[in-house]
Amino acid sequence: MPSGLAKRLSKAGPTKKEAHLHSASHALADELSQKFGEPKRFGFYLRMAMLYNHDFLRRIAGQVLESSATKKPGALFAFLVKKEKDQLIKPQ
What we know:
mainly alpha
């Protein structure tokens, strides 16, 4: 017979943070929005993750995070993605 703690854990659903991570795109969007300090812009990052190659987005995010001069890393990230977007759209 399971212990009281095991019963409570089995009845508990996923945590709030895990509830919206349905795919690799969702996980990447969550990661980017957290790294850039913009959790309320999750939808923007999800759109980016659904349109563009994940490796490319991670490379751009790395460049942005290494740049200590930027005050708005999310804006710089969006600019750099837009600058190269013609080459990066996923084939349908």
